[in-house]
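[Meeting: bench + compute handoff]

Bench side (C.D.) handed over the final construct sequence. Compute side (W.E.) agreed to return the predicted structure before the next meeting so the bench team could plan truncations. Sequence as handed over:
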Amino acid sequence: MTAGEQHGAGSTPTTGGRSTSSDYRRREESITLSPLEEQLAEHPRGMGGERTQELLTLNIGPHHPATHGVLRLLVTLEGEVVRDIKPIIGYVHTGIEKTAEDKSYWKVIPVIERMDYLAYYFNAMAFCGAVETLFEVEVPKRAQYLRVIHLELNRIASHLFWLATSALDLGAISMFWYCLRERELIVDLFEMSSGQRLHTRYFQVGGVIEDIPTGFEQKLRAFLEVMPERLDQYGALLNSNEIVLQRLRGTGVLDAESLLSLGVTGPLLRAAGNPWDLRKADPYSSYEDFEFKIPVGTIGDNYDRFACRLAEMYESVKIVAQALEGLPEGAHITDDRKVALPPRHELATSMEALIHHFKLVTEGFRPPPGEVYFPVESPRGELGCYVLSDGSAKPARVHMRDPSFVNLQAFSHTARNGYIADLIATLAMLDPILGGIDR
């Protein structure tokens, strides 16, 4: 949906800066539904070809618990069959990209992490990678491995939250508690390494802010030992649930060619049989050092999306185990003092280090003029950060290519001509994060 379609007559003058009821009604009427003749000619799943032409337009959201964020769906129904969907976004409008352009590079990281709030390490990785490319900073090998460990743990945590809420949408409430139980183990690890459970600011331009503390490795090994067994339990529980299988199998089907034409990436594309994954196609942060498989589906239905994400968690466990076993010795951040803060122990003995620390924190660093796009494979697909530098201490432009925003385009194609109950399951399998959409 374009901004014009979304806001419609929103440019109409209002009184006192507030919209009148007539302005609001004009905006509602400006959201036009696509022609229904071709859609009505198709037979919906499990129903005959009767064409009653009795259509009902229904609002789902923006406060419906199954909309996975502040998302509004304008749904056109014929009985229980979905004939058209218009996702309406813009209820959050965090303005994170513009906020980032008003801060020094060093201070952008805490802001940018809060877009896709379930994949904060990936947000930071994309931005730090772009700035490091501008500076041509070489990140130490140990820092790269530490990044991989935290990225893959974050991928598991994000997938666990997706599985918990998606199963809850389908009525499997027990899965919600089981998945959050394992997710707590991961955020406990994040708290050990960074001091924060969420939005950790652990990734820093040039590496990571601190090395892992004593006890982190032992706690991580305990998690890696228990997690595959728990994943087996998830699969056994859901694959024997007849309601879950009926809601997922054969619903929301969309082929790989259509998904590519919409720009869809990540598990949604891989579920349709396309093995595209940036960790293999364009490795970053030493992903080329690790052996792992890319799970793919067959027909691209909701069950394939569920199965691919479940399988991805197994592979993430393998990557973390390899990174932990092969963790190199050395520095956790670059020794380039143009971008990295001096070690804390120098601050008490060196006036130069103290001044340098003060200037970096207050003024920031100045990368050379240029522009960079740095993509990473987030839990929802390609998350890319575009940074334009004009040589000052603040980025001239920051723009994120968030996969949730792009993938939402596929929703109307996957849910159309299915039952309204399947619409909820299809949205859950889409795994959109509205913080990334309304950034």
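W.E. noted at the follow-up: The two ends are 16 Å apart (CA to CA). C.D. will use this when planning the next construct.
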